[in-house]
Structure formats: C-alpha cells, structure tokens
Amino acid sequence: MRFKTLSALAACMSFSSAFAAGLDGASLEYGRGPEVAMVRLAVQSNWDKRWFESNGTHVAGYWEGSLAQWRGDAYQNIEGQRQNITSIGITPMFRLRADDGKGWYLEGGIGLHLLSKLYDNDSNMLSTRYQFGDQLGVGYAFRNGWETGMTLVHYSNGGIKKPNSGVNFLMLRAAKSF
What range does the domain containing 67 cover? Predict the structure, then answer.
C-alpha cells in the first residue's frame, strides 16, 4: 500500500514541471454533493497552444494542480457523523473560448487524484484512494482577469475496484489570471 501511495505521489510530482515555468492563474471553489461538501484551491499553467480556431473562438488547454478538502456528513451512512478527506490532483483541462480570452467559456478535463483515505459517506463508497476526477464547466472571464464559473465534478476509480458508486459535486468557482 505504501509503495502505491508513493508511486502516485511521484507521478503527481512529475507533472510539477508543468508549473516550473510559472503559474498563470489560481482559483478557489466551493461545492456540494449529497451529504458532502468540498473546498478546493487550484493553480493553473497554460499550454500556450490553440486548436480548432474558427469564427473568433478556439480551444486552449492548461494544467490544473489542486488541493481539496471534503467533508462528508453521513460517514458510514450515519447522519451527522463526519468524515474529512484531503485530495491532491492534477488535471489537463481544455477550454473553448473567444480568441481574446474574455467572455463565456466551456471547459472540461479528466484528472488523477489521490485521497487521504477511503470515502464512505451516505451509502456511497470509493474502494480506492486513487480516483479519476471528471470536470465539465461553464463560466465567464472578465476583462480584469477575474473569472467566475460553475463546474460539475465526478470522482470515480473508473471501475478498477468495487464498490465504486462515485461522488458528484456541483462547484462554484472564482479564479484570477496572472
């Protein structure tokens, strides 16, 4: 078990070179799911590439490194019993946006996350600490570098091991580009 944990941490750290050239933004998110809440801090590093340029829009990408705290309110299916979990993750994100980077955007990505312990809350269980985090969001980028958005997030181990009921969050996001 320790070897797997160290391997996952080493894999996450290997992506840190994406951030070595400098950070391009940071975000703070808060969200809820059934009997669970999450607060997440993240930093972003743009890829400085464009795909599918057409009619004043394009797809851009960035790395997102995140640190989150979950609080379950029904640990082992007992209402009011709390479970706190810390999550660290790395996610490649793709964003459809205007060429000037301002206005409405649509984004999504699938990342790797390591949980501090197994999730067991409100009849939902995750049997591994290693999870895939799927994100799909919409938002608005203001001219002053601030962004606001809403994101659907789903954590699951992708069927690697059962039980794997998954956990869903609806997140509100505030971000600042540097």
Answer: 2-177
